[in-house]
Design goal:
It is an enzyme of class 3 (hydrolase). Belongs to the peptidase M20 family. This is N-carbamoyl-L-amino-acid hydrolase. Its EC number is 3.5.1.87. The structure is a single chain. The chain is of the alpha+beta class. It folds into two domains: 283 residues, 3-Layer(aba) Sandwich (Aminopeptidase); 114 residues, Alpha-Beta Plaits. α1 runs antiparallel to α3 and α8 runs antiparallel to α9.
């Protein structure tokens, strides 16, 4: 297996071809989940699966699986390799797609070289990882892991007012299989880092051993609109004062106690949003992430306690919606060790690291041992048309995936 390499030109050609699916008249890549563009991307992916004569199956949530199995390993739990192919708005071409297509390339390389494996290999393309059209993100893998009821998830309404289940039917990807019908022995996800660490520190491969916990909320503080000049402070019911108190309490606690937690107020809307009027309402988003359970849990409790404190004062109304609470994940030590060993066999430098972004692997880790492989992202840029990983780095990552898979499959 050590001498076996993927076909780099074939992988890169597929990445580029899929990267053209979903371009608008401005040249922007917009392949949102269950859109016409997503259907076109899915159809192209399935055509490549069919060329290899793989067993193609789709579950009720539109997750696509293609399995290579032979007579001697039928009935064994498969090794699953995958990611997603839906995109954000004005996306790059590597996020998600690289992992799925590298899984395909791994299977094709093993198959055309007549490699014998002790179990099947399944390539997975999960639905709605990005969560742009149907919030929240990672819905497909969340449903697949059994942590979200399938019927509830199918009733999710998109930002354009359409029901997820209806859109699945419309594009022809509402399958018959129940989510979780394939139980993987293990799962590996190859991905661009989407951060600057590998690029800045000069490492070629990231062996991802854990993934940050992530919480997302929308918080609304309501007060009373009034004149900006003639209303003294003690008579004000100003929701922006509550916002600044809330965020400064959070930031100060995190910094004072050295928590490995980051908090981001990424969006805020004021009503009536006028320069000379005390706002009546402030609605903002809060994204919090931490790789450790201690940092994650402490920060979550602080948020709830501070909201209760503001509400108890009685001047400001408080409403908080928790869209997602994903606990920190520790990936499988044995798979991570095999990733490091595979990189070493290929004379590639590697670094144990944490994923700052969410991925399908964190959900599949709940049902099977999982881990991730990262390759560098130039300047850490992602979710952006400037997203770039060099051809050499892309091929390196796919070869690490191939060799890691071969180790887990006892390939000969």
């Amino acid at each position: 297996m050590e001498h076996l390499k993927i076909n780099g030109d074939r992988l890169l050609n597929r990445i580029n071809e899929l990267g053209e699916v979903g371009r608008n008249e401005k040249g922007q890549l917009i392949r949102l989940a269950l859109s016409d563009e997503d259907k076109e991307g899915r159809d192209l992916l399935v055509s490549w699966f069919n060329e290899l004569d793989l067993k193609i199956e789709v579950d009720r949530f539109g997750n696509i699986f293609a399995t290579w199995e032979e007579e001697h390993n039928k009935g064994e739990k498969p090794l699953m390799l995958g990611s997603h192919i839906d995109s954000v708005i004005d996306a790059g071409i590597y996020d998600g797609s690289y992992g799925v297509l590298s899984g395909l390339e791994t299977v094709q390389t093993l198959k055309e070289n007549n490699v014998k494996t002790n179990r099947p290999v399944t390539i997975a393309a999960f639905t709605n990882e990005e969560g742009v059209r149907f919030p929240p993100s990672m819905l497909g893998s969340l449903v697949y892991s059994g942590d979200l009821d399938i019927d509830k998830a199918l009733d999710t309404i998109s930002i354009d007012g359409l029901r997820l289940g209806d859109e699945l039917e419309r594009i022809g990807y509402a399958g018959d299989n129940e989510p979780g019908f394939i139980e993987p022995e293990a799962y590996i996800e190859l991905h661009i880092e989407q951060g600057p660490v590998l690029d800045k520190e000069g490492f070629e491969i990231g062996a991802v051993h854990n993934l940050q916990g992530n919480s997302r909320r929308e918080i609304t503080f309501t007060g009373e609109a009034n004149h900006a000049g003639s209303t003294p402070n003690y008579l004000r019911k100003d929701p922006m004062q509550a916002v600044t108190h809330f965020m400064s309490t959070l930031y100060n606690y995190i910094n004072k106690n050295g928590l490995d937690t980051v908090a981001t107020l990424g969006s805020i809307q004021l009503e009536p949003n006028a320069a000379t009027i005390i706002p009546s309402k402030a609605t903002f988003t809060l994204d919090m992430r931490s790789p450790s359970e201690k940092g994650f849990d402490e920060a979550q409790q602080l948020v709830r306690d501070t909201l209760d404190e503001i509400k108890a004062e009685g001047k400001i109304g408080v409403q908080a919606t928790e869209f997602a609470i994903f606990e920190p994940v520790t990936f499988d030590k044995t798979i991570v060790e095999n990733i490091v060993a595979a990189a070493g066999d290929l004379k590639l430098s590697s670094k144990l690291m944490t994923s700052g972004a969410g991925h399908d692997a964190q959900m599949i880790n709940r049902i099977a041992p999982s881990a991730m492989i990262f390759v560098p992202s130039k300047d850490g840029v992602s979710h952006n048309p400037m997203e770039y990983t060099s051809p050499e780095q892309l091929v390196n990552g796919a070869n690490v995936l191939l060799l890691t898979a071969g180790r887990l499959l006892d390939a000969k």
